Amino acid sequence: MIIKFILNKKEVSIDVDPMKRLLDILREDFGLTGTKESCGEGECGACTVLLDGKSVTSCLVNAVHIDGKEVMTSEGIAKEPIGKLLIDCFDEPNAVQCGFCFPGFLVTSYHYVKTDGEKNLDKIKKSLSGNICRCTGYQKIFESVMLACERKPLMNANERE
Amino acid sequence: MKSIRKIDAIPKLNGSWKFLDDYSYKGMIHGQLLYSTCHHGIIKQIHFPDGYDLSEFTMVSAADIPGENIVPEPVCDQPYMADKEVFHFGQVIMGIAHPNRKLLREFISNTSIEYEELPAITDIKECLDNEKNAFGRELTIDHRTGKKPDPNWVHHHKIYYTPHQEQAYLEPQGMIAVWQPKDKIMFVRATCQCPFFVKEGVEAIMGDTIKEAVIETSEGIGGAFGGKEDFPNLLAGITSLLSYKSGKPVKIVLDRSDDIQITTKRHPARIEIETWTDPKTKKIMKIDIDYRLDAGAYQTLSPVVLARGVLHAISGYSIPDAFIRGRLFHSNTPSNGAFRGFGAPQAFAAMEAHIDNIASDLKMNPYKFRKINLFKIGDEFPTTQPILEDHLSNCLERVIDKSNYSKKLKEFKEWNKTHKDKKGIGISIGYHGGGYTGNGEKVLNSEVKVVIEKDAIVKIYVSNTDMGQGAHTTLAQMFFEAIDHPREKCRIQLPNTSKTPNSGPTVASRTIYIIGNLLRKFAFKIKDELGFENLEGYVASNQNEFPREFRMNFVQDPSVVFDDENYVGVAYKDYSWAACVTEIYYHADTYQIELTKSWSVMDIGKVVNQKIATGQAEGGVLQGLAYGLCEFFYKPGYGRMHGFTDYALPTTMDLPEIDVEFIHNDSPIAKGLGEIPMDFPAPSVRNAFHNATGIFINEYPLVPERIYSYMQRATDRHRQTQTV
Ligand code: FES
Ligand code: FES
Fold it and tell me: Any idea which fold A2-73 has?
C-alpha cells in the first residue's frame, strides 16, 4: 500500500505493509531513530510522536492510520522554537539521565507546553502520566517542564505557536 | 560542587545519540533467543513451524559451541545454552537469526518444544522455607560472646520476606556481533555495564576460533541498574556465535516480554531475625540473623550478592553479641543477579522492620529506640571493622528534624483517633560500602589512561560506562576541576576494550568513588610531574612533548585488610550513610497507601555535581519506595510478570514529593552514590503503615490485596479474642 503523509513538516510517501507499525516505519524506513521502542505495547511512552497534533504511542499505530496525516517526531520537535526551549530546560537542571525515555517526554511535554502551557504541577504530572522514566524519579522532569512554562511567555509571539 | 551540564543531554533529547538498536551494519541480520517454557525437564523434541524455508535461518545450540558452554561468572555454573536438560523457565536453548526481524519473531513464537517434565520449585516461599534447597558456600559472620542471654531480656523472633524486583531499564537488552574473519576478531557492540566482562563472555564461548573479542558500548546505554552487569555476557556469547556461523553481523534486541521473563532480577529473600533486648537500657544485646537468597537455578554472581547482604545485615546498630549466617537457595527460575543495592535492600528491609517491631513492643518512639542502638564512634561492625564516624547518626537527626517527625507522630496519633482513613510516618536508615568488597579492589587493580594532545585536549580512557548516571560527565569533571583545565578541552573515550584500559566494571558504586577519585589524584600527579600551573600554557610552550600518554593504577589503602575465609576485618574503606522519613495517607476503603512525602538525608562525601547527584538520588529513592509499595514480580497462582502491563512501575502520578539532601559534602573524598538511594527507603513505607494502622506486615510490596488480607486476619483475630 502506498501511503502519503507529512513527516516533520515534509511531504513523504512510501510503499509499505498497511499493518507495519508507525514506530518501525520511522526507524527503519526513514532512519529516524530518535523514536524509541521500550515496551512495544503502549505502556511506556518511549515511542511517543504527534499525530495530527495529538500525542500517540507509535508502537500501537499502523501504517493505514497515518495516510494523509501529519506526524511529528522528537527530531522535528527539536527544531521548533518550543522544542528548543524545552531542550534547554531539560538540560539546565541535568534532568536527562539514560535518556532513553526523553524523546518521548520531549514530545509529550511539547504538546503540553504548546497547547496549554500553564505552570501547574498537577496538570503537568497528569499530562506526562503516559510516559515512564525509570532513572529520574520524575522530579527534575517536572522542574524542567515548569521552567519551560515559565519561559514560554518570554518568547516572541510567532514562536509560541 | 559545580553543576556543569551533562555532555550527552542535548543529543539524547534531539534523538541523535545512538542506543544499541539505533546501530546498523551492512548485511546485518536479526537474532532472537529460543528459550525454555518448562521449569525443569528433558528436551524431547523441537518442532519448527511449517511454511518456512529453514535454509534462510541461522541456528546455534549447545552443540555448536567451539569454546566452553559455561558463562564466566564468580561461580561458573551456568551454560550459555541448555544441553538436553533445562533447569528453569527462560533458559536459552537456541539462538536463531534471519534477515527479517518480524518473520523471525513469528517463527520463534510458533516453534514448540516438547519436554519430559521433572519436578520444579518455582514459588519463592517453597524455595526459601526449605533448608534442603540451600546450595553453594555458606557465609558466616561470627561475633558471638558465647554467653547465654539474660532471662530478663526481651526476645523477638520474626521472619521477613522480600520479593523480586525488575530493573526495568527502559532500553531492553541488546547486542550486535560483527565477525571479522580476516583478523579473527569478534567485534561486539553492547549495551552493558562491564565491557571487559562481555569480552570474557565472548572469548569463553568462541574458544580458539577467534583471536580476540573487541567490545565497544553503544553511545547511549538506556539504563541498567545492575541488570546489564552479567546477562549481557551470555547474550554477547550467543550473538557472536550466530555471527560466526552466518558470517554476517547479527543484532539481537530482546522484546520487553522476553527481557522481563528471562533476565536477572533482584533476589527474593527470607531473613529470620532473633534478638534479645535489655528492657532497662533498651539496648539490643544479642542478635541472630539467618539471611537467605533465592539464587534461581544457578549461582552465577549470587555469592557476591550474598556477601554484601550479610555485611549489611545488621543495619546501623551496635549489638555486642551477633551471629549472621548467609545462604543461597536453589529454585527452578532464571538466575537472579545484580540490582542496585546488591543484597543490601533486603537486609535493611528486614532489620529496619524488626527495629520498629521491637520499639512498638517496648512502647518506644522508633526514633529514640534507634538512637540508643545506633553505631557510635569506637563501636565495631560484626566483622570487627571499627566505626570511625558518626555520620549515620547525623543523617538520622537531620531527617527527623527537617521532616518534623516527632511533632507529626503526635499529631497523626490524635488525627487517627477520629478518622477511618489513617496517617502514618515511618523511619528507615541504611548505608552502603563503596567499591568491591574486601580485597576485591586490590585484585581488580583498575587502570586509567589519559592522553594529552598537542592542542591541550585531554582524553580520558576508562572502561566504566555511562548508563544514565552521568558518570562520563562527572569523571571528566573530577579530572579537569583538579587542574583547572577548561571543560571543553576534556573528552571521554567511549569504552572499547581495545582502546580503554581495564578500569573495572561499572558496578558496586565504585565509578566515582574508585575511578573518579583516582582520576583526581592522577590529575594532581601529572601536574606535579610536568610542573605546570596552567596545562594549556605548558602544552603550548612544550609542543614537542605532546601528544603524551599517562597511565595510573588504583592502589588500595593499606588499612583495608579483609579475611575472606572468616569474614573478619575491613570490608569497605568508606561507607555512604543515609536516613529517611516517609509520610503516608492510608485510604481505608480501598486499602491503598498514598505516599505523601519522603525525606532522605545522605552522606555521600564530596558531591561533585550537585544536580547530577540529586537526580540520581531522586531516581533511586523512587525505585526504593516502589520496591516497598507496588512492584510485584511474582504472585503465587499467577506466576511471573510478562511486561510493563502487569509489572507496575511508578508513573508521574504515583510519587510523593521527594526531598533529598546531602550532608558532610565538604569531605575531600567522593563516596559511593549509585546504590545507597535504593537501599534504605522501602522500610520507611512499611514502618509508616505500621505507625498508621498498628498492623505489622513482614513482606513487600504493600499493595491493596496484601493489606486487605492482613486486615482480614487482624479482624478475625480480634473477633476470636472477643469470643474467648
Ligand atoms: S514502546 Fe510504545 S509505548 Fe512503550
Ligand atoms: S532517563 Fe532513563 S528512563 Fe528516563
Answer: Ubiquitin-like (UB roll) (3.10.20)
